[in-house]
Design a protein that fits this description.
The protein is of the alpha/beta class. It has helices spanning 42-49, 99-102, 143-146, 149-161, 178-189, 203-210, 222-225, 245-252, 274-278, 291-303, 321-329; strands at 2-8, 16-22, 30-39, 60-61, 65-73, 85-88, 91-93, 113-114, 126-130, 134-136, 170-174, 193-198, 215-218, 233-238, 253-261, 282-285, 312-317, 335-339. Helices cover 26% and strands 28% of the residues. Strands 3, 5, 6, 9, 10, 17 and 18 form a seven-stranded mixed beta sheet that branches. Helix 4 packs across helix 5 and helix 4 (149-161) packs across helix 10 (291-303).
Length: 341
């Protein structure tokens, strides 16, 4: 039995196509998930355009933001049943003996491999998932929304766990992509005043941020950051995909403030970090997520405190993956979701 899949088959730009792939076989601790919906991530686009900075096991099925129903369980699986609605974390392969894993921080295990680059992902009808990374989808939460739990968890980690927001803080978020908008939304949930900053071409995305109660700023955010007392904002979340935004973050943040960097930027810095030292600023990296964060985010989605509908630009059938990719790539939508049929 086979199904269509969106496969990244080589490192050259444009090396993505629809292929027939066999139905996966599950191991003792795995489940087989029939995919209901899968989100298109910026990393999927980067592998499509070949400007990514991480190793990829070609050929590989794309897709790591997904949810669906269990259709088969391995012999050793006890806590899940056929028919359960679930979403999955991304840590498909981890080392149980790694010190990070033993601390419950398996997202930081250096040997970790994720769906869509390290192992086959979910842009297809069926995906094999280790049962240890499954989470139940609350009743009433639509799968088109639940499949976006993963980027929400990235934002939660960057904004709640790896930052120190207090109610009344003034926070700048750089980069109005999916993660940047969700970081802005999370900062608002923490009680902060928030400005999301982008380029002229980002005006549509900045407008979406206003639906989360955030200010949208094109270009220079200095005046907004310094409006309270002239010293700068309390914190900056750098969610942009370019290294130069770190310099902007250092300029905008107040003395003794903090920067949470979640955006990947492969370019060399080529600027002086002395202002970071002089201002006594904390620079914190933020990567991925873990089990407890997923449970928190699913609760936020189920309660309606966090609403992903403003960023959802549409749902496309799997065979129209390229249209969905292009709409995201050209900034016409913030987040595209695919629906295997």
């Amino acid at each position: 039995m086979s199904a269509a899949a969106v496969v990244n088959y080589a490192p050259q730009a444009g090396s993505v196509e629809l292929r027939d792939v066999p139905r996966p076989e599950v191991g003792a601790d795995d489940v087989l998930l029939e995919v209901a919906n899968v989100g298109v991530c910026g990393s999927d686009l980067h592998q499509w355009t070949a400007d990514h900075s991480w190793p990829v096991n070609y050929p590989v099925i794309l897709g790591h933001e997904f949810g669906g129903r269990i259709v088969e369980v391995g012999d050793a699986v006890q806590s899940w049943q056929v028919g359960d609605r679930v979403v999955s974390e991304t840590a498909a392969i981890i080392d149980p003996a790694n010190p990070m894993t033993r601390q419950g921080r398996y997202n930081l295990d250096p040997s970790r491999k994720g769906f869509g680059y390290g192992v086959d992902g979910a842009m297809t009808k069926w995906v094999r998932v280790p049962s240890r990374i499954l989470h139940a989808v609350p009743e009433g939460l639509a799968m088109q929304h639940a499949c976006l739990t993963e980027p929400c968890c990235v934002a939660y980690n960057a904004t709640v766990r790896n930052a120190r927001i207090e109610p009344g803080d003034r926070i700048v978020v750089l980069g109005p992509g999916t993660i940047g908008i969700l970081c802005a939304a999370m900062a608002r949930l923490c009680g902060a005043e928030v400005a999301l900053v982008g380029l002229e071409s980002d005006r549509k995305r900045l407008q979406i941020a206003k639906e989360y109660g955030c200010e949208g700023i094109v270009g220079d955010a200095t005046d907004w950051a310094r409006a309270r007392d002239g010293l700068g904002c309390d914190g900056v979340i750098d969610a942009a995909g370019a290294s130069i935004t770190l310099k902007l973050a250092i300029d905008l943040v107040r003395p003794a403030g903090w920067i949470s960097k979640v955006g990947w930027g492969p370019q060399p810095l080529n600027f002086n970090l002395d202002p970071l030292v002089q201002k006594n600023v904390t620079l914190q990296g933020s990567f991925s997520h873990h089990w407890a964060i997923w449970e928190r985010v699913l609760a936020l989605l189920a309660s309606g405190q966090l609403d992903v509908r403003p960023i959802l630009g549409g749902v496309w059938p799997l065979d129209q993956w390229q249209q969905a990719f292009e709409k995201m790539h050209h900034g016409e939508v913030v987040k595209a979701v695919l629906e295997p049929v």
